[in-house]
Write a structure and sequence with these properties.
Length: about 170
């Protein structure tokens, strides 16, 4: 599991940007995915006191499992979504948006993509969590219909857990 949202929390609305394509990651994307995640989460390292979990994830493995979706503007990788299905929910493990794309609505589009994936799998809920020190996210998710369900320490991180039922 990973803290969600490197740099997408302050985003604007979710208007579709025809210049950005979203689709499954391929094995050759792994290095570029890690580089984008590291750039997106870099501002949080000092605040948290260590690297957020997504900065150390094995993206080659996650891509091989089919868990990674990427957003590209032309050839440039600009966003990453990592998700895993659970028993009756889709866990959004990570959303990362390139710093130069933050505030464009791309984070919201990636959340919409996760919702579509959950519905296609017949799952009734989206779940995610964020680090309590990623304070931007604590208001971002409730604005998108997520309800805080729990706070606890996990893997040495103070995490805030959210869920949103899919109607």
């Amino acid at each position: 599991m990973h803290e969600v949202m490197g740099g997408a929390g302050a985003g604007a609305g979710a208007g579709a940007d025809p210049g950005v394509g979203i689709g499954p990651a391929v094995p050759a994307d792994a290095g570029e995915v890690l580089a984008l995640v590291r750039r997106a989460y870099a501002p949080y390292v000092e605040r948290i006191g260590r690297e957020p979990a997504p900065m150390g994830a094995d993206y080659s493995e996650l891509i091989a499992r089919g868990s990674v979706t990427v957003a590209r503007r032309g050839a440039a990788l600009v966003g990453v979504l990592v998700s895993e299905p659970g028993e009756n929910f889709l866990l959004v493990e990570n959303i990362a948006v390139a710093p130069e794309e933050q505030g464009t609505g791309l984070g919201a589009r990636l959340l919409e993509r996760a919702e579509r994936e959950a519905r296609e799998l017949g799952l009734g809920e989206l779940r995610l969590y964020t680090n309590a020190k990623m304070t931007e996210n604590l208001s971002y998710y409730p604005r998108r219909g997520f309800v805080e369900v729990e706070r606890r320490e996990e893997d040495g991180f103070d995490r805030v857990f959210y869920a949103r039922a899919l109607g």
